[in-house]
Amino acid sequence: MQQGQTRLESRYLYDPVGRRTGKRVWRSPGGKDRPSLSHTPEVTWYGYDGDRLVTTQTADRRVQTVYMPGSFTPLLRAETELAELEKAAAHRTLAQKLQQEANMTFVPELVMMLDVLEGELRRGEVSEPNRQWLAQCGLTPEQMKNQTEPEYVPRRKIHLYHCDHRGLPLALIRRDGGTAWQAEYDEWGNVLREDNPEGLEQLIRLPGQQYDEETGLYYNRHRYYDPQQGRYITQDPTGLRGGWNPYTYPLNPVTEIDPLGLFAWLVIPGICAAGGCEALAVLLGLATYTATPAGQDAMKNTSNAISSSLSNCNDKAEELQQCSPPSGTICYFYDQVPPAKPHYPHAGSHYHLFKMGEAPYCRWNKFGSEDIAPPGSIPCPFPRTGGR
């Protein structure tokens, strides 16, 4: 609102399990003579892999994200203009081309056979049964290959993520090793500085969080997070199981994350901070060094600090090993559910999670269930019910 006039309105869509699947935003065109909102909203659609946001699509482009397996740390970003996708969608399969040219509809079995044949023709490996089938029709593989249309591969902008030890994106690296985008944050995820010469829309923040331009908040799966306050603005959906304060975010955001908006996941600090894991892999011969600014900084900082970082990690491990396994360890039971018998709020198989308490009360405490097991979690050692 500005001087009694609405400047912006946004509405959000959610699926039955609470994932945000879309939003519509109406903006004011501006000017004294046009105080009302636009009649045409800006529409954004979201797609998920479990609880991880993997696809964001607007009227202009589609952005897809690949994550580190079993985590919320982004690895790769692929941006494709919708015009490119439309060109790819205009491609006709062999079955579609033959049906249109013959002005007839093939039976499903014939369409399936032609789809299989087209795949073999593109690979240059036509099976003997298909060769015999074509011979019975008086055709050759070469004749059918001439009927196929060339596939159109959309042009995409590919960037690799460089993240800190928590999974917070620090930079996007181009294929040539240059930096296309980079940012600095404080501990709570507030952007302190952003360098974006290519105009990329990089909205991923702390693990599991997505920046909302309209509100300035971060969508955090089950809740909304305000980085200015360092806390949630929506109550904990687990109730008192999450603690007495229903709005609290992990009190130490450097060593804990909350990608689901439900509970804290422990992050062991030390050598994996600021690219240290990548640089250590290079020093150990497990990876190839790329001369990017982020890689250079990681190599320079890590080569002189490995011994002290390992010592810090060892000290931290000794502090945590008061229980066995250490306090904060998450274990899980896998609940395999047939698709026809979903367990609300899960649509299928899921994990029941337990967390080891603090010493001297080394007991497993149940605190929820999720579609994926948190990184670093272990199978529950039940029927044993605690540590030492």
From TrEMBL:
Tree of life domain: Bacteria
InterPro entries, per database record: RHS (IPR001826), Rhs_assc_core (IPR022385), T6SS_VgrG/RHS (IPR050708)
Cited Pfam families: RHS
Residue ranges of every copy of the RHS protein conserved region domain listed in the record: 158-195
Protein family (similarity comment): Belongs to the RHS family.
The name this protein goes by in its record: RHS repeat protein
